[in-house]
Amino acid sequence: MDFKSELLNTNQKLAARGVKLRIEQRGNKLSLRGPLPSQVDPQEIKNQRISLGLNATVEGLKQSEKTANFLALQIEHNQ
After folding, report:
1. How far apart, in whole angstroms, are the C-alpha atoms of residue 50 and residue 5?
2. Whole-number Å distance between alpha carbons of 78 and 16
3. What are the Cα distances from residue 63, in Å, to 31, 36, 49, 68, 78?
4. How far apart are CA 72 and CA 4, in angstroms?
5. Cβ count near 20 (within 10 Å)
6. DSSP per residue over the chain, as a string?
7. Which residues contact 61 (CB under 8 A, 6 or more apart)?
8. Using one digit for the tens of pLDDT, what is the confidence trace for 27-52?
9. Contact predicate 46/34, CB 8 Å
10. Cα 7 to Cα 4: distance, rounded to the nearest angstrom
């Protein structure tokens, strides 16, 4: 399977679990995009990107998925 289809499958799995964050490839790096608390006002939710500094590889994609799940859990518990 190629990387783009792996990325699509991973984002579909995140959506099925109710995680609103998505993994995207920007150049040769991976980042997360989605609704996150604002740095200025944590009560305000804004669409933002977080650069993960991971290469766009299958291993990087697996780590990105773990990070997305962890962030979603933290947001859910207001941490």
Report:
1. 22
2. 22
3. 11, 19, 16, 9, 22
4. 23
5. 16
6. --HHHHHHHHHHHHHHTT---EEEEETTEEEEEEEEE-SS-TTSEEEEEEEEEEESSHHHHHHHHHHHHHHHHHHHTT-
7. 3, 6, 7, 10, 23, 30
8. 999 999 999 988 888 888 899 999 99
9. no
10. 5
Amino acid at site 46:
K
pTM confidence score: 0.88
Q: Which tens digit of pLDDT belongs to each residue from 50-72? A: 999 999 999 999 999 999 999 99
Tally the residues of the chain. 79
Q: What is the dihedral of CA 47, 48, 49, 52, to 10 degrees?
A: -110
Structure-block tokens of residue 48 = 């933002």
